[in-house]
Amino acid sequence: MYVIINFLEKIKLKRVPIGSIGAQSVSLPIIEFGSGQPKGVIVSLQHGGELSPLWIIKDLIEKSEIIQGTATIIPVANPFGFIQGLRNEPIDGKNLNRQFPGNDQGDFTARLAASIFKVCQPADFVIDLHTFSRQSPFLAGYNIGNNLSLQDQAKKIIQLLKPDIIWKVNEGQGDDKRFSGSLDGALAAKGIPSVFIEMPNYQAIDSKMVTRISNSIQNVFNNFNSLEIDKNNIPEFKAKYIFADQAGIFEPKVSLLEKVKAGQVIGTVSSIPEFDETKITSSVSGVVMTIKGNDVIRTGSKIASIGIN
Ligand SMILES: [Zn+2]
Prior knowledge:
By secondary structure, this protein is of the alpha/beta class. Helix content is 22%, strand content 33%. Strands 1-2-4-3-5-8-6-7-9-16-14-11 form a twelve-stranded mixed beta sheet, with helices on both faces. A four-stranded antiparallel beta sheet has the order 13-12-10-15, with no helix packed on it.
């Protein structure tokens, strides 16, 4: 037996049809609560195995009465990836977060992206929730592309979120071109400020972190329209990835947010079955943004991201 308390009074649920597969119709569930300004859209589970945002959304719904404005939430942006626990959209085998602004006459993933993009259009701001498989702080990032005038608005959202560290992406340049087609980049091209949040995944996140992130999002809704924002000096970095040359069991030797120098050992890999230990060093000086915990890795595994200025 179970009881649903006040569910329908608190939030509205609608489903945006995407199409059909076999005998099943596919739709995107969207929940909404509150009224008036600001209008914020929260997108979650673009990557189907990144589950922590579901706990954040539950917490936000529980405090919906004390949130200002209108919250529109896409809890499961990648419905089949969610079922299968996959990062990519499994029908087309594509990364949904590289398909924006989408195409409502394209393949299934492009149509999904187009529907998500449409839901984001009337927003004053968009927050896109992700997790890392590596150890992760509360990280917020923005991707303004070529629209430099959006930078202040994206930064305002980030000041209100108060994350541990800021990841600055410009998908128009250099290594960051790999992010081309992201939701944030496509929204920036349309002049809509958006930020993404990265957090530990569901086996690693604790309830304190869930509450902290949900309170931060609440703070964005409640203060988005205020002119006075506390300026805080949260460090801002670009990410440099460190990949493994070896395979075996990985053990980290540095902690999140620790400063490291180029050449410093950040972890070890012990081969299987010999258990020969090899040291892994950072190729750059910077701050540990993410690093794997104890894990089994292969050649080419992404071990860490180092924040560089
Ligand atoms: Zn993700």
